[in-house]
Amino acid sequence: MRFLIFAILCSAWSGTAREVTAGEDGNAPTFNRDIAPIVFNHCSGCHRPGQSAPFNLLTYADVTKRAKQIREVVEKRIMPPWLPEKGSVPFANDRSLSSQQISLIRRWVENGLQEGVGARPELPHWNEGWQLGTPDLIVKLSQPYVLKPEGKDVYRNFVIPIPVSARKFVKGVELSPGNSKVVHHAFINIDTTGYSRKRVDKDEPPGFDGMALPETAAMPGGQSLSWQPGKMHSFAGPGLAWALEPKTDLVLQLHLHPTGKPETLQPSVGFFFTDEPPTNTPFRLNLNPLNLDIPAEAKDYVVEDRYVVPVDIRLLSVLPHAHYLARRMEGYAVLPDGTRKDLLLIKDWDFNWQGDYQYAIPVELPRGSTLAMKFTYDNSTGNPHNPNHPPKRVRYGLQTTDEMAELWFQVLPRNLTERNLLGADFAKHLANLTVEYNEAVVKENPNDAEAHTRAGRDQIFLKQVPQAMAHLETAVRVAPDYDRAWYELGYLNLGLDRLPEAQHAFESVVRLNPLDYQAEGNLGNICMRRGDLEGAESHLRAALRINPQDAVARQNLDLVLNAKARKR
């Protein structure tokens, strides 16, 4: 059933088939005059050979064969797949049909599917392969990946070296999914450290499962690099390219749907370069309440988050995210004078059609404005998307049977020198949310070492030292084999200049996780403070063997080698 709905009317706007206002003369709509321009401009881009839709909509015969189904899905606004309501803020590449277009389709079906005698518009010209043209560099999975025929959805992360020998400035990125029937969505991340490569499992091609990525893998420079069926790719605005360094890995996260038979896919990513270096870097600001705790049968469960921006900003795009229980999403701003400005409204969220939305005109917000979000969830039996039968309590988590509430904004400070100020201020907001959530978790389960560790890590950032120490000491006591707890405890003790305690903690990290280059680097730092140059060199060289891009370890090793040379 999901594939029947999958892409009746995916957008592929090209502008070559002119859409007209028709039927005003009282005549019944015809395919050639009225319906073909709508279908060709809004449907055929996906409904053609080699694209994501399961059947073609290229001819009169194609459309009449499915006319009743088309009418049903457009009247329900299931198709084209466009979730935001039309409001005060217009979006670029809006795929939705107007009420007039929907009315034309309904009247055409009711009046007998007339073909008409006039000239039919030509099909649009589509770029075959890549929407943005020929990429300057194509990075492709080394060999096909085989998706098993049955089971739950799969989150697979592929790690692929990017073969550049010098810094490049990237103005655009485009994904070719390799098998659009099974790829629900994708996120494109990069890792400059090599750490993701060390996470790969024994399967081929190289990768690992799960929604959680290493902290070293991230979207660069505040970008929103994603793919969904029907997405219209675009180049970055003037001055907003980002730098791609040598020895960088592509970390491609795919959400995959099994189809009932083995499927192969071999995705590739096209990079488009520019000679113009970036003059500004966007910031990704995420409203993200973590305190979701949705009781079974709750129909209108609400979570909210608010953040007061400390600088003048402009919003470039927005990306909402939740799982199957979310129903309504609101994003808005409250200006300093109390005026409300709507930024996004989705009345009927559909997990299967999530995407990012670029504002047609950047939204200007003065400092002191409040960015806010309000998401509503339905965890009742009456929610047809509910994955649990019968419904059960659902809390925050990364699995699709858990829930999330995220509203990402791509933000550009009006004064580029204030980006760091915005980042530091927003980091405090996120840290407080994380502490609040994890303290609620450990209150319910005092032996949750991961929650203790997350709370302690953010309390270090917030300079809440006694509370952080209590959480981290509890974490290593209840889970002595959890390396991240030992790492954060070592980091805290190192900051307090408690070197023996810090050394013990970092040695525990290396014993449990020999690939932790940061722990090796910190052990080198401790040896440097003690004047143990031999020990420092050993640990710093170990850190660089694991991550040759570790600039801190490289700098400290140079200091150690110079100090040893002076002693000779």
Description:
The protein is an alpha+beta fold and 568 residues long. It folds into four domains: 2-110, no CATH class; 137-274, Jelly Rolls (Sandwich); 283-413, Jelly Rolls (Sandwich), CATH 2.60.120.230; 438-567, Alpha Horseshoe (Serine Threonine Protein Phosphatase 5, Tetratricopeptide repeat), CATH 1.25.40. Helices cover 30% and strands 23% of the residues. The protein has 14 helices and 21 strands. It has helices spanning 2-5, 31-42, 60-65, 67-75, 99-110, 195-198, 419-444, 449-461, 465-478, 483-495, 499-512, 517-530, 533-546, 551-567; strands spanning 137-140, 145-147, 154-162, 168-176, 183-191, 207-209, 226-227, 242-244, 248-256, 263-265, 268-274, 283-287, 293-294, 301-308, 313-321, 326-334, 340-346, 357-365, 370-377, 394-395, 406-413. The protein has a five-stranded antiparallel sheet with strand order 6-3-9-5-7. Strands 1-11-4-8 form a four-stranded antiparallel sheet, with no helix packed on it. A four-stranded antiparallel sheet has the order 12-21-15-18, covered by helices on one side. Helix 7 (419-444) packs antiparallel against helix 8 (449-461). Residues 1-25 have low confidence and may be disordered.
